[in-house]
Input
Amino acid sequence: MSRFLADLKSYAKQYSRSKAGMFFTFIMPIMLMVLFGAMFSQNTNSVSLPVQNLDGGPASMQFLDALNQSGVVKA
Output
């Protein structure tokens, strides 16, 4: 058991001396959680979708109306 603890202690020392290992283990996951939390924290029920209606025909207007009536997309 003492060999195991000595081995564990030596690996812990080697790991703690590596700045890159410490960064990717502790700081990077926290940064990613904060970044993605900020990006996806908007509690909106619909998504704004920019549309270029270059056709202007009745079929395209009906399609855009159907998108707007769905409530999920605002075109």
About this structure: The longest helix spans residues 19-39.
